[in-house]
Amino acid sequence: MEKEGKRRLRVVLVAAPFQGHITPMLQLGSILHSNGFSITVAHAQYNSPDPSSHPEFSFLPLPDTSTPVFLTGEIIASAVQLNANCKARFRECLAEAMRQQGSDDEIACIIHDEFMYFSEAAAKDLMIPSIILRTNSAAHFLARTALIQLKTEGHIPFPESRSQDLVPELYPLRFKDLPNLQLVSKVSNIRSSSAIIYNTIDCLENSSLAKIEQQWQVPTFPIGPMHRISSASSSSLLEEDISCMAWLDKQSYDSVIYVSLGSLAFMDVKELVEMGWGLANSQQPFLWVVRPGSIRGAEWIEILPKNLKENISGRGYIVKWAPQKEVLAHSAVGGFLSHCGWNSTLESICEGIPMICKPCFGDQGVNTRYVSHVWKVGLELEGRNLERGEIERAVRRLMVGEEGKELRKRSKNLKKKVELCTKEGGSSSNSLNKLIKIIMSF
Ligand code: UDX
Q1: How far is the C-alpha of 228 from the C-alpha of 417, rounded, in Å?
Q2: Which CATH number goes with the domain that contains 254?
Q3: Ligand 1: distance of its center to the CA of 239 in Å?
Q4: Which atom of ligand 1 is nearest to the CA of 322?
Q5: Most buried among 91, 131, 206, 323, by the most CB within 10 A?
Q6: Which has the closest alpha carbon to 257: 336, 144, 360?
Q7: Has this prediction a pTM greater than 0.90?
Q8: Do 325 and 227 sit in the same domain of this protein?
Q9: What is the pLDDT of residues 273-301, one digit of tens each?
């Protein structure tokens, strides 16, 4: 940002090496860059962003040797290891950057993913303000922070018989929707932060956002959905198979169910086969993302039985990774069977696409509950395991039934509300203006 007509302030972003975290961080970088700030992106070596897709940013690779842990899906363990590996180097790099900076390129603040909590100590040491970017919903934050109290009161761990009970003080969440307690101590402390940025929208989460401001007294900036505000080019870590767009072009309006469980979830071969038969038996056209490496015990879909492959041929299209935002925006897509990661949830809401929710872990239970019970733009798959009959019924309910029509109508209405928030004078646009002011004032 050009202060006094000359200086361009620099913001250092510290991204966590997961697809669902890198994407919103780079989107934020692009939003701030288009508002006049210089951007440096500090990142781990594994799952690193591609600098050539973002020539307007500088990149700062950090040492990290946690690759094998990431590949086994041990997210918490890998986050802890990553923080330990990067702490000293990040502080050194930052100190060096400050020594070299001219008065026209001063570091205004650090904005770090809440999983990259090592950044806080460095920022504090060097007296640079730090801001947290939360890539999940505000409701998830409230649920997560309530876990310690719930444990103290003896509510968790909870027996299976209580899984459908409402959690005290966290309406409408049930015990089964709660995230994992393990994560609580492995994230940044928001009290030592100058502000928190949320990739969320006031019209979706105003009561959760108000509670957070009231309880923590830290300025909160809900500036989402960032993929709608930012002009960032693709930050996809996997190659997108764009052939599915030509296949979608041949399908009729609102007829296709898009299926993806995001960038981190795993399933076993039995679940893959159940999912395949459920989709096949629904008799609806589908576009299914099966991420390579996401099936325990198989490379990819070679394991699907021959009769299943024959059954779905022509009606189902399977890819390793899709251009998801474009897919959801395609007129042929009428539903999304999703794990309800927060990015996928926002992307679906922004396109007015109703969901079938199959949460896998973390924040996804909370998102599912809000999608199905609060915003009422989706159905929840109730079974703990993927089961063909349940998938078939859910797909038919969403794609052919009256219930589906109602959900589609509500989704289109919610889309319109969200659009208003990002327009000039809307809540996200106002929040962004305030955020820019606060960064300039540091
Ligand atoms: C998980 C969490 O559930 C999420 O809430 C958290 O913020 C990050 O970690 P993930 O499994 O990555 O997330 O899901 P999600 O947040 O939905 O992000 C996935 C991203 O990958 C989306 O932006 C989606 O558009 C993209 N994607 C997914 C593709 O581009 N192509 C695909 O085929 C599938």
Answers
A1: 14
A2: 3.40.50.2000
A3: 14
A4: 33
A5: 131
A6: 336
A7: yes
A8: no
A9: 999 999 999 999 999 999 999 999 999 99
